[in-house]
Amino acid sequence: MAAFIGNHSCVAVINNYVDKSYVEYYTQVHGQETEPKLDRSLLNPLHSLVNLVNMHPVKIIQFVSKNSQMKNHLSSIVKVLTLMSEKEMKRGKTTNEILAFKFHYISHMLNLLLKEESSDLTSAKEKFQSTEEYIIRLLLLSMNGVSQYQEGVIREAVKLYPFKETMTFRQLLTSLSEKPTVSGTPGYLIVDSVVNGQKGFYDDMYCATCGEMSKTHKKCVKCKAVQYCSKQCQKLHWFVHKKECEILRKTGRTTEKELADGVNQMQVKEN
């Protein structure tokens, strides 16, 4: 299994690798420009961001939250990502429509930060340390095992993709057409399969918070049913998992569907 995961990750990186010169172009002055579209200090972090393999919205927000330069230049980064997506679709025979969608998808997630930064919902956000933490909480919040906000954000990203004649768009539209359910495949995994190629397993390899894939994740010591890639992810997810942990521990349920069934059964008994 570990070999499979490693091989798939390598293939995903190779297929969608973005050379640094691709991003560096936007840090240079061209034509009649008086200044570059992207500050030179953003070259390395943006290059790393567009080469992420993990398409989970939380992972993307976490990446940006760890880089103060990116947080201070979100608007210009979103504009550059949009230009990169458009440029990729104008390459003719060498067009990589998957990369074009990936650039658009990442820019959409960063737009969440921009919108929340400019919103006036101060009372809702004041108890959080940052806008990034507030958005991550929204993305993780679930109802009966389904993260409705997260699923909505992912579907909106696909809906707003401007190149609707592409096979990538049609594939995503078809795969995400059904209403998200606890027994269905999460939206981020559908996007991941399109961008990085289909994986063979969707069981216990993913961090419950950010979707990072590994067989070495640490499971919750109480229920042994969910796993995390770091203490930070476990802490971020606790507000969701604390409602489920005891049920999982007592019933031995190991899947989200089984968990949702268990919660519903308890609610029926209480009523």
Alpha plus pi helix count: 14
Stretches where pLDDT is under 50 for at least 5 consecutive residues are 1-6, 266-271
* Class from secondary-structure proportions: mainly alpha
Widest β-sheet, arrangement of strands: 1-2
What's the story with the biggest beta sheet? 2 strands, antiparallel
Q: Into which percentage range does the β-strand content fall? A: under 5%
Overall form: globular
- The SSE string, one letter per element, is HHHHHHHHHHHHEEHH
**Care to count the β-strands?**
2
What's the overall average pLDDT, rounded? 85
**How helical, in percent, are the residues?**
55-70%
What is the radius of gyration?
A: 20 Å
Distance between the termini: 44 Å
In brief:
The protein has 271 residues and is mainly alpha-helical.
Protein model, in words:
The chain contains 14 helices and two strands. With 271 residues, it is mainly alpha-helical. It has a two-stranded antiparallel sheet with strand order 1-2. The longest helix has 22 residues, at 97-118. Mean pLDDT is 85; it is low at 1-6 and 266-271.
Q: Which labels suit this protein?
A:
271 residues, two-stranded antiparallel sheet, 2 strands, globular, disordered N terminus
Show the helix and strand layout:
Blueprint: H1 2-15, H2 20-24, H3 43-50, H4 57-65, H5 68-72, H6 74-88, H7 97-118, H8 122-125, H9 131-140, H10 148-159, H11 167-175, H12 187-196, E1 218-219, E2 227-228, H13 231-251, H14 256-270
Antiparallel strand pairs: 1-2
Helix pairs in contact: 4-7, 4-9, 6-7, 7-10
